[in-house]
């Protein structure tokens, strides 16, 4: 309040309030002004990158004005806010999203056209904001879009990595990682040099008694790193609401820059210290579904949690409400266990700094947090070593032990004498060294825990959190099936399909209420509609074929069946099953005569995805795909019948080109391992069918679109344990078809067989943990069925259209409404009437 312009002076301000452009001419004048002044370029020096910059800055101005009003409006509304804590946000590009969400793409396109630029070229100048690994990070980005679109008062809290996920290059069929320095020109962020938080590390705990003889603890000493806020506006679609994503960047604390060293001539030493502080937010850890327990990662987690909580608490304190109102004002969602330290941190703030009693504080903590689990795989569950936490965060370790003590006493009362239960559910794992089980801490410190698809939410209740269901009852655990934003994944990625749908449904309402898509089923027999739908798919395939030609040099036939698997490379996702299937197909083609070959449907097998830099098996899979491509693509016997492509550097902006171009996409994880998957939803929404296992959201997709519209295969989650057991005890036989594939690999038909021995041996000799052999036959047969079905183009088209019509459930808008109602208890805040972008 102290910093606001006094009432009598406000008229002068209001007279000068900047206006938002509404027409092509107004837009162009803003863009040109930015090119000339903000970017200092001229009529004679304006390339595509400058034109992109000017366009982005003109849109940024617009977003900022709505953003300011939204923040003001949400503050006065004084309702409960949501804070989404995620260590990953895979945002992709922002310009097209800003143009579409403000409904101003047309004028901008025309304006830039007058200067001789094509909007697609300008859009592709932007670097992806790639602050994430895969589905988890992209989910967070979709949620931000949905929360803004539905007017929820919500903030995302992120870490501002200097380097996002690495850029992948393929050299001689091997992945090479190149650093992604994305901040050279980022018009979408605002440095808030005045919004900083000092974050403490190391040091020790001092206990002391106050005048009443009560004991207190205080964390003292150690070192300080400063957190600086950078804000990014998040525009909703067809609403004036523009929310905030706040990213924290680390820098040396000004008091910490060692003037002693500096003055005594050790200039380099003092600069080295500042660099050490900056490393905290330097780089995103490039592992998907894998925990490596590195100290710097723990520092990142605490740095970001502590800065965010400080910010949230500061905002709450401005309301001057009593502490017991905290959880009526604040909901914090933990995206996986990465932000779990927020739990002991809030408890610390409340008891050590604000002076609340333990139990009063703990009730606030539990009512504030919700925790989303994204995996049941052991290697992905975070467990931090106790000595490491002791060293870095001594007070937090004490608090974690106290939380554990209280919890175990509660369990002991409920289940007297069950020693084994106590051992199983303890936050502290009695290993050497001891480790803190972050998922258990997250469950204990939250009021709701959710999985991300029905099967997954059931599985967590019977596996990793089984005991906790006994302890707390089943109501603490719930399901929110993942979703995707139809704005980016339909309207932006597939504009022609979006327009076609709009023409049939009488407008773009479906982009805000995706269930309206069901009305498309009325048009499934409409000839003109069918033809247009098919043409759009073909055009999207042509666009991808061009991209393939430009990036790999290989020509593919757009009339062939495009079979796509793009996602992180992981053994559980089974790209190896896919490439073995491709080899099987290749061997079959080689064995055919000309007549038989004529009957075959031409295929293009397309792969894409990054392997974590230290994940050798995943890198081997990439190498095999590339080598198979080299052989198959150059075999004159094969011609158009089969092409194998590995697309370099799969990311969000490439996904926008790839997703609309599939006939079939692959979601073939070992049953029970893929918590949800979200690209499955994107592909079906864009009129592609899928082949998949009964895993994650595939199951609910099947329920929605009907089992005749999906190609399911393979063993079920409930059979996995027994099958694995059989492998270990020799009670199985390697699949015949797969043996032939291995023979071909071992004969060196795809280059040096030694390169692939670990991959083959993992299946033949080491237990085939992901059950590739068990599912191979049904996988290949299902692909034969796909070939047959594709020959009947009319029936295929009906399946595609019907599926699109039935995908309404998978909007991230639906997810966010479920979180808001079941977990957060928050309501939307309507934007003020005078805000412009309103619908
Ligand atoms: N790797 C799951 O594996 C899910 C997303 C988002 C994942 C994936 O099935 O769709 O989360 N899990 O819920 C983790 O990252 C731990 C993922 O992206």
Automatic annotation (TrEMBL):
<comment type="similarity">
    <text>Belongs to the glycogen phosphorylase family.</text>
</comment>
<feature type="modified residue" description="N6-(pyridoxal phosphate)lysine">
    <location>
        <position position="682"/>
    </location>
</feature>
<keyword id="KW-0663">Pyridoxal phosphate</keyword>
<dbReference type="InterPro" id="IPR035090">
    <property type="entry name" value="Pyridoxal_P_attach_site"/>
</dbReference>
<dbReference type="Pfam" id="PF00343">
    <property type="entry name" value="Phosphorylase"/>
</dbReference>
<protein>
    <recommendedName>
        <fullName>Alpha-1,4 glucan phosphorylase</fullName>
        <ecNumber>2.4.1.1</ecNumber>
    </recommendedName>
</protein>
<keyword id="KW-0021">Allosteric enzyme</keyword>
<dbReference type="GO" id="GO:0005737">
    <property type="term" value="C:cytoplasm"/>
</dbReference>
<keyword id="KW-0328">Glycosyltransferase</keyword>
<comment type="function">
    <text>Allosteric enzyme that catalyzes the rate-limiting step in glycogen catabolism, the phosphorolytic cleavage of glycogen to produce glucose-1-phosphate, and plays a central role in maintaining cellular and organismal glucose homeostasis.</text>
</comment>
<dbReference type="GO" id="GO:0008184">
    <property type="term" value="F:glycogen phosphorylase activity"/>
</dbReference>
<dbReference type="InterPro" id="IPR000811">
    <property type="entry name" value="Glyco_trans_35"/>
</dbReference>
<dbReference type="GO" id="GO:0005980">
    <property type="term" value="P:glycogen catabolic process"/>
</dbReference>
<keyword id="KW-0808">Transferase</keyword>
<dbReference type="InterPro" id="IPR011833">
    <property type="entry name" value="Glycg_phsphrylas"/>
</dbReference>
<dbReference type="GO" id="GO:0030170">
    <property type="term" value="F:pyridoxal phosphate binding"/>
</dbReference>
<keyword id="KW-0119">Carbohydrate metabolism</keyword>
